[in-house]
Write a structure and sequence with these properties.
The chain has 241 residues and is an alpha/beta fold. The chain contains 9 helices and 10 strands. A hairpin with a 2-residue loop joins β1 and β2. The longest helix has 14 residues. The structure holds adenosine-5'-triphosphate and magnesium ion (MG).
Length: 241
């Protein structure tokens, strides 16, 4: 089976807001799936539903043949789904290595093992030299790497990245793209929410486009980019930059 994730008819409302409405798609093993859409389209909500941070009103999420809909976040994490958060929230007064150990401790209670896994993840994101720095001392780009390392240390086979390149300066972006591609090189399947069109076109095997909580396009990057619904959604929008 090449399909790792299958999502069918996922819906979630917040009061009168349909944050996700009948969203269906799949992700294949080893794929990088880009997720695009204007502000408020429902991208982060979709990640919350996939990782158990929010419970869907309807729909199903199947991971490697197992239905995980409605499971708690810690259980979904242990089943191999890792995520980063759009709003970074490292513990500012913990060191880099301590922050990443928090991720590793999601899968082991052995401190030594957690430390080794944390160090491996920190080496992977190329921040070993900073391992004893406090999180509050890190730059935005470094905190993005911390967040990637923390998620990686949970041992994911499916990794959901919420705006990895968001809020960092232009010169920091290529290094982050390289990291995402290197993660895939480790066999990890990736869903990446991305506002930067150039980045998403470059890294994605396929793209899912959302608007007003609905799927408006899903397929190969070139087809999605030229899809009339996508063009419409981005016309006159600052997101198209
Ligand atoms: N916990 C919540 N409670 C109430 N409303 C929410 C909640 N989370 C999201 N929403 C609403 O759901 C809609 C989708 O939000 P979401 O954060 O998923 O969009 P997004 O595509 O990630 O946007 P952005 O590009 O700005 O990050 C928005 O109208 C938002 O205000
Ligand atoms: Mg978001």
């Amino acid at each position: 089976m090449t399909e790792l994730l299958k999502v069918v008819g996922l819906s979630k409302r917040f009061g009168g807001v349909k944050a996700n409405e009948d969203i269906s798609f799949d992700a294949r093993k080893g794929e990088i799936l880009g997720i695009i859409g204007p502000n408020g389209a429902g991208k982060s909500t979709l990640f919350d539903l996939l990782t158990g941070y929010q419970e869907p009103d309807s729909g199903t999420v199947v991971l490697n043949g197992h239905t995980i809909t409605g499971m708690r976040p810690d259980r979904i994490s242990r089943m191999g789904v890792g995520r980063t958060f759009q709003k970074l929230k490292p513990f500012p007064d913990l060191t880099l290595i301590e922050n990443v150990m928090v991720g590793a401790l999601a899968r082991t209670s052995n401190i030594r093992e957690a430390r080794d896994q944390a160090l491996e993840a920190i080496a992977f994101v190329d921040l070993l030299a900073k391992r004893h720095s406090f999180a509050r001392e890190l730059s935005t780009g470094q905190r993005k790497r911390l967040e990637l390392a923390r998620a990686l240390a949970t041992g994911p086979r499916l990794l959901l990245l919420d705006e990895v390149t968001g809020g960092v300066d232009q010169k920091t972006i290529p290094g982050l793209i390289d990291l995402v591609q290197a993660l895939r090189g480790r066999g990890i399947t990736i869903l990446t929410i991305e506002h930067n069109m150039q980045v998403v076109m470059e890294v994605s095997d396929r793209i899912l486009a959302l608007q007003f909580g609905k799927r408006i396009a899903f397929g190969l990057p070139d087809a999605v980019r030229s899809d009339p619904h996508v063009v419409d959604a981005y016309l006159g929008s600052a997101d198209a930059a």
